[in-house]
Amino acid sequence: MKRFIGLTSLAFVLSYFSGFGQVCISQAESQQMLKEQVLPLSTQGNSGIQIHANNKFQTIDGFGYTLTGGSAQLILALAPTQRLALLNELFGTGKNSINISVLRIAIGASDLDANTFSYDDVPSGQKDENLAHFSLKASEKDLIPLMQAIKQINPSIKFMATPWSPPSWMKDNQASKGGSLLPQYYGVYAQYLVKYLQSMKALGLEMDYLTPQNEPLHPGNNPSLLMLAAQQNEFIKNHLGPAFKKAGLKTKILAYDHNCDKPEYPIEILNDPITRQYVAGSAFHLYNGDISALSVVRKAHPDKEVYFTEQWTGAKGEFAGDFNWHIKNIIIGSLLNDAKTALEWNLANDPQWGPHTPGGCTECKGAITIQSDGTLIRNQAYYIVAQASKFIPTGSQRVEMSGLPKGLVGVAALRPDKQVAVLLQNETKDMIKTTISYYSKQWAIEIPKEGVASMVLR
């Protein structure tokens, strides 16, 4: 496990991936991750994998995590030199970086904050319909300064904003957990979200996307909200969409943001001819259902995009099993089903899987565990995202790939620099040897049993 602790141990495995005919291979069973190898030219003929770069699909916005308040709290507590090194490793574009390009942000608290809060909390029994008490103060100590520091390192980082709950006084149960948004506050809540976006933009933190509610069919978390499809449709159609239009906001509204077992939820919203004019697409998790739900919704509404926005790795999970399942389903699977983003859950936590709210997730393992002495442990989710983010930058476009041998799954993307990134996964217990052809060149590749390979071809 030594290779997963600290920063200096990554100097080799994250060496700069710029040379053509190079490949980075991960074998999670032996925990040999992102090992760089030479990808030799081959003269075996064109019987192997073929890249068809002229057959293009969705443009990819990127890969990343949710930056919770708890993550921000822990990262900011690091010594300044170590914190800067970590942020450059995560968000920079240099030779020691994994190039994270998208971060999901909670509007108010998520369940991985130390406590519950919104940006307009008032004493029990009171209301604030004019939003006179709206304030970002609860996030000014940790989350906002960390976001600003990240933005300095990567000015093109994309932010996705998601509320876990409206202010409690807007809900029928007057509590942070569960309940539904009272209809009389639909308009006020829309203005609350507009005010949030405007306030963050004033701080240099413009949100690229917003989902109206995290996991709207799971009111058992803390915080959380039950928002049925008909309720979300009403909220967007008559309140949030018009409020965005009036305020001149460019932030994209994404419907749903929950599991792949209910594709009918976003389809119902997108079927409404008025609502759909305000909605850019829909967002998904995979705690239930099949990743193919993304392409089901995309096929029903081909002019609307799909995004994959959350999947956790658990404290009781096994490294190789988690890594291989997530690579197949979350990274390769979501991209093959038209996703523009593939995001894992929490960026960082402590060894006790905190901070979390009372009633929040007690077993969510962050991409990085930050120990009390500042030691950093890079977990499964770190390498799941890195296997894609380091090679497929924002603005890449998925392209067709054919000729995959039995037991091999994969995806290819044409990068903005006109090189092609390829991600391959060997699902078998045996090494797979094949070739990859792109234009006039052909390379030989050997992928170890249950191994994953990322490469860039030109």
Would you mind describing this structure in some detail?
InterPro entries: GH, GH30_C, Glyco_hydro_30, Glyco_hydro_30_TIM-barrel, Glyco_hydro_b. Residues 395-454 form the Glycosyl hydrolase family 30 beta sandwich domain. Residues 1-21 form the signal peptide. The chain is α/β, with parallel strands linked by helices and 458 residues long. It has 2 domains: 22-56 and 399-457, Golgi alpha-mannosidase II (Immunoglobulin-like, Sandwich), CATH 2.60.40; 62-394, Glycosidases (TIM Barrel, Alpha-Beta Barrel). 25% of the residues lie in helices and 29% in strands. The protein is built from 10 helices and 22 strands. The strands form 4 sheets. The protein has a 9-stranded mixed β-sheet with strand order 2-1-22-19-18-17-3-20-21. An 8-stranded parallel beta barrel has the order 4-5-6-7-8-9-10-12, surrounded by 5 helices. A 3-stranded mixed β-sheet has the order 13-15-16. Helix 5 packs across helix 6, helix 6 packs across helix 7 and helix 9 packs parallel to helix 10. The longest helix is centred in the middle third of the chain and has 19 residues, at 229-247. It starts with 9 loop residues before the first helix and ends with a strand. The model is unreliable at 1-20 (pLDDT under 50).
Brief overview:
Helix content is 25%, strand content 29%.
Count of separate structural domains: 2
Reading side by side through the largest sheet, how are the strands ordered?
Answer: 2-1-22-19-18-17-3-20-21
CATH level-1 class of the largest domain: Alpha Beta
**Radius of gyration, taken over Cα atoms and rounded to an integer in Å:** 22 Å
Which class of secondary structure composition applies to the elements? alpha/beta
Tell me the distance between the termini: 35 Å
Which bin fits the share of residues in helices? 25-40%
Q: CATH superfamily of the largest domain, please? A: Glycosidases
The number of strands is: 22
Please state the overall shape, judged from the principal axes of the Cα atoms: globular
Poorly predicted runs of 5 or more residues: 1-20
> Count of helical segments?
10
Residues in β-strands, percent: 25-35%
Main sheet makeup: 9 strands, mixed
Mean residue pLDDT: 94
Domain Glycosyl hydrolase family 30 TIM-barrel: 60-392
GO molecular function: hydrolase activity
Protein name: Glycoside hydrolase family 30 beta sandwich domain-containing protein
Pfam families: Glyco_hydro_30, Glyco_hydro_30C
